[in-house]
Amino acid sequence: VMQVVKKLSWLVWVLLVACIDPYDYPFKEQTNYLVVEGAVTTEPGPYAITLTTTRNINNEENAFKLREQNARVIIATSSGKVEKLVEKDTSGVYYTSASFRGQIGESYQLTVTLENGMIYKSEEVELLPMPPIDSISIKYGSQKYVSQANAIVDRKGFYITAFVNDPPETENAYLVNWDYTYKIFTHPELANYYDAEGCECWVSSPKECCAVCWVEEESLDFAVANDRLNNGSSLTQYDLFFLPVVGIMLYEKIHLEVSISSLSKDAYFFWNAVYDSRYSQGGLFDPTPNTVEANVYNVDDKEELVLGYFYASDVRKISRFIHPTDFPERIDPDTGYPDTCLLYPNTTAEEPEYWNE
């Protein structure tokens, strides 16, 4: 039975990190598995370590007891420093101090002591350097995807490619994240409200502010890459991800920022398995699930199943603008939204500092 559980463990972890509702595990036995997620990077802190415990949602008593509270969490460095993390609001999320920052070449080990006294440690993880990113390019195209209505549809957008100055003498692997910002306009002069206590009708209520806003989107998707097939090239091309674009995003332009983080070989295997699982459509030639071993273990029982991954990364960022002229089809940038743009999701009326660079 434990062998079956181990082979399914990576899937359980994927569903947890995807920020979805608690998963109804197909296990009949105890399902209280510790899940550890977090990283140390070269970006400014604080860094967060999240501790949860899986539960079978059929057990109503435990359905909402997912956060591991009141734990003692520390990160030890290879140079002898010990960083004590602090939990905020009994959330099961533990934070380093803002002054704690990852250093290239240093190794880190996480230790977690739960409220019940059980102790867990991670393997030591080295923070590897991230090579310089030379540039990113865009290519207009389309992509098929499965909609929420379970229909296969096309969406227009851009394929994003990065060119990285890889050290040719070493194998390199990366985790890729991205966010993007675009300017929209709406129609606050068309704002109205329903007068339920008076005429029981819609009443015009124009607003002076605001017609123009910036939408700041942080993608929940990610990509992974490695130079296994072209190691030895000083400048390596990586096809990263597809950015869907609709008309309202091109009222003026889109600011795209790509973050690429260095990964160790083991960390790459973990994130690559997560990626394969999340984006597999279940086709005949899709990759088959692989067992992903966590790098966290119970110090008194190394056979205990622990889920998740603790890793360290050097992070580099690069950005560029996408203009309406890059989009060869006719577009309508009007949102048609009859109210202040401040009510549009993820908006601000304050122009970003980089917008006119």
Briefly summarize what is shown:
The protein is mainly β and 357 residues long. The protein has helices at residues 2-17, 265-279; strands spanning 34-41, 48-53, 72-77, 82-84, 86-87, 93-95, 107-113, 119-122, 125-126, 133-146, 152-164, 173-185, 192-195, 201-204, 212-218, 223-226, 236-244, 254-263, 296-298, 307-313, 315-322, 347-348. Residues 1-30, 59-65 and 282-289 have low confidence and may be disordered.
Would you give an account of this structure?
This protein is mainly beta. About 10% of the residues lie in helices and about 40% in strands. The protein has two helices and 22 strands. Strands 3, 4, 7, 8, 9 and 19 form a six-stranded antiparallel β-sheet that branches. Strands 12, 15, 16, 18, 21 and 22 form a six-stranded antiparallel β-sheet that branches. A five-stranded mixed β-sheet has the order 5-6-2-1-20, covered by helices on one side. Strand 3 (about 70-75) and strand 4 (about 80-85) form a beta hairpin. Helix 1 packs across helix 2 (about 265-280). The protein is globular, with a radius of gyration of 24 Å.
Secondary structural class: mainly beta
Mean pLDDT over all positions: 85
Q: Give the number of helices.
A: 2
Distance between the termini: 59 Å
Largest sheet: 6 strands, antiparallel
Measured on Cα atoms, how large is the radius of gyration?
24 Å
